[in-house]
Amino acid sequence: MFRPECAATGCTLLLRPADVSGHFVPLFRLSDDLIFPPVALAEPDGLLAIGGDLALPRLLLAYSSGLFPWFNEGDPPLWWSPDPRCIFEPGRMRVSRSLAKTLRQKRFQITVDAAFDAVIDACARVRLENGEGTWLNPELMTAFRALHRQGYAHSVECWADGALAGGIYGLGLGRCFFGESMFHYQRDASKVALHALLELALVGGFELVDCQVANPHLLSLGARQISRQEFLARLRRGGVEASAQPLAAVLPAGHCSSSSSVSGT
Fold this sequence. Notes:
The chain is α+β, with helices and mostly antiparallel strands. It is 28% helix and 25% strand. The chain has helices at 56-64, 97-105, 116-129, 138-149, 189-203, 216-220, 228-237; strands spanning 12-16, 25-29, 47-50, 68-69, 78-80, 85-88, 109-112, 153-160, 163-173, 176-184, 208-212, 224-226, 262-264.
């Protein structure tokens, strides 16, 4: 049951229950060492490892390696690299007639990094208020606030009459953006924020905008799925190398037609 590859990972190999084919599924328990097993060892559902912490170097190493944390509050971190992976191509969003009308009306103002804390708080609160539950627990929110202060995490805000109407946040590394969550208080506000993000990514020469796992809503907006292998290759093409200190991305605020104006802090 022991794979030769495991000796070099610095992690402990565990075995999940057998899948429908009768095969045991590998799972790695992380040590205190800042290391992850190769993502190629993850099963198609993406779960690769358990444990570790949410310290900034580990988070940066995870995202730059094609992994992300996804776990319930009170549980140890779980680290995922699904196959396939869901992404948006920069500048390519499927715009419905109603959304096109909203964009033409220029009802919203877009800003970048003007209210990161408010956006991440709203992403968690709105889901809870809708009875959906959330993986965005206080520990992860604290970590992303720290990543924002370090220049890695960014938000795109959508405003109406001076009030926050929607937004999206995520992590920017190299020329790739790793979207985490979005919310809206007003109709179409999160879609306008996403549209703005994809335009900014296009202007900035980004390789892709990651959205992790597909769902009908994302696919309806133009997201598509690619293999894990292609995703990792495109990260490298986008200047993202596996590192605890990867190059931070910069969103080019001031170049967007999703609203009447775009500004950054």
